[in-house]
Amino acid sequence: MKKNILFTFLLFIFSVLQNICFAQNSFEKPTVFTAQQIRDGASIEGESKFYDKDNLAFASPDFDDSAWKYMNFTSKKAYHKDQPYWIRYYFKIDSAMVNESLCFNISQLGASEIYLNGKKIESIGKIGNAKSTEFRIKNEVPALFSLDNTGVNVLAIRFLPITKTKKTVVNYSPIALDIELNAANDFLDDKVDMMQGFNFIAMLICGIFLALGFVHLLLFLFYRKAVYNLYFSTYNLSIGLLSYMVLSFYEMTDPDKINTYSFLSFLSIVVFGASLTGFVNTLFGKSKLRLKIMLGIAGIFIILFYFSAALAVSFVFFYIFIAAIESFFLIIRAMIRREKSAFIVGGGVLTFFLFVIMLIVFQILDSLNIVDPDQLFGDDFMGYALGFIFISFPISISAYLAWEFASTNLRLVKQLDEVNRLSELNLKQEQEKQQILQDQNDLLEKQVDERTFELQKEKQKTENLLLNILPHEVAEELKENGSSEAKYYDEVSVLFTDFVNFTQSSEKMGAEKMLVELNECFTAFDLIMEKHGLEKIKTIGDAYLAVCGLPLKNECHAYQTVLVALDIINFIEERKKTNPNALDIRIGINSGSLIAGIVGVKKFAYDIWGDTVNTAARMEQNSEKGKINISESTYQLVKEKINCEYRGKIHTKGKGDMDMYFALGNKTE
């Protein structure tokens, strides 16, 4: 037993000495990265050559750095001066990664210049004087490089840190400089997938809660006595703002925005707690003093943040905890007292706390290696649980507000019935006192009112039908003048869509099913047009024609039209996932001038003419399944905002060879 203890102790001492003696990176003892490490992301860390002076000669691979000291350059503690520092790191790569595309994924609190084997490959921010220096937190698109041998490579980093002279309200990161060596293809694919998924979830949460917030704010403005609508509105707006701040922090590159984002995040958390306690106290609280105290504390926290952000942040989470406990207590008490609607709100709150406690328990069991939630419930368990936590309380409150609205409406209906009953009784008594002639006059007046009302309804139907056929401005001109002149528009974009193999699909599906499919697709297209401000012109069989930039001028007509096309492609792709009979589509877009106006005097229609329309049709005919084919004129208008793929010159019937492009997606996504 003693020999085992002694052997274990000696082994521990040996490993410590080995780390001290051999962990230091140098030319003689470079770090060797395997192919798997690089694909997974190899961290550049440990004791490395470090120097607190500045000289561009330090980037040379032949520079003698033997006099430099070893330092853990990732820690903030290594940097004390507001000046550039140099780090030199030696490494080798596996032969499997020779001539492969590589990149450095860098996160930092400062500005840096990256040199590889004496060659500057990347600058993140700008190192200059006090006015010209630009700090950046990360390299959004890392520079790519490759190594042609398995020899020793010298990574030299010139780094200007953000020191204590540039204060932020929060400690954004404990690490000053974090570097990973990655296989470029794997890294970029993973980064794109992660950003798309994260952005979608964050913006979905943000959009849902902001929409709920504005809806209930409008309800409060229309009915000021329902103060709970105001609190629920701010509750949803705070969640929407917080989700947007999480996304902003994730995508942030400029450290100057840390203070602003930190304050907005702090504000959303404070408003969340204040609105929660305000809503529950308004419904179930008996003491107005407690509500005033909780709201006053929230205001004090916002003021305290200006003087001591760290202290304010420390207290605000305790405030959220107290608000949650108070809300839980008031709702449970209301349920015990069998107060109206308590079970509706209480069900959501209990579900909220149940999922929170369940997550905590599973995290504890997972940390003790007793239960693995991913194996037990699947990889998406945590996401679903967090989703239930997010929506359980708002759903229960929305259910309560719906119940309250229905109850109020029912009371109003009963009161209206009583008023009608009394009115009928009074009218009967009055009618007995009036002469027959007066009764006839009343009857005639009633009939006139009814006919007038019916005429107004029919007139409104006629106007609605006219607006459904023609643009609003053209309809107004037609009503005022009795006619409408065709007009010339010099800057518009025309969109054509067509379903691929429509005839074969029609024979396969049958006319009735095909009609249903077309109706559902074109209905969705109409909504997409309305969303982006396009004017639907007509449908021709399975083709759909729309235009942007008329009758009202739109400077972004080409960009808006491409966005519509992207939404249509996304709609068709999503539809194909659930509908095996969904049709494939191709789209063509062209920009230019045309003439638009009314055709005929009977069964008239609003239509467009010109070479721009014909060219748009050619773009659609030369497109491919699931693709958006745009002309040269459209490409020149959207190339700064839309990722495009040049197709070359393609021969077009009646037009000759034309430059064409595939629109792939928005550059901001």
UniProtKB/TrEMBL annotation:
Pfam families: Guanylate_cyc. The keyword Plastid does not apply. This is Adenylate/guanylate cyclase domain-containing protein. SUPFAM superfamilies: Galactose-binding domain-like, Nucleotide cyclase. Belongs to the adenylyl cyclase class-4/guanylyl cyclase family. CDD domains: CHD (cd07302). The chain crosses the membrane at residues 200-223, 230-250, 262-284, 291-309, 315-336, 343-364, 384-403. Its main location: membrane. Residues 413-447 form a coiled coil. PANTHER family: GUANYLATE CYCLASE, GUANYLYL CYCLASE. Residues 1-23 form the signal peptide. Keywords: Coiled coil, Lyase, Membrane, Nucleotide-binding, Signal, Transmembrane, Transmembrane helix. It is found in: Membrane. InterPro entries: A/G_cyclase (IPR001054), A/G_cyclase_CS (IPR018297), Cyclic_nucleotide_synthase (IPR050401), Galactose-bd-like_sf (IPR008979), Nucleotide_cyclase (IPR029787). The keyword Lyase applies. Residues 493-620 form the Guanylate cyclase domain.
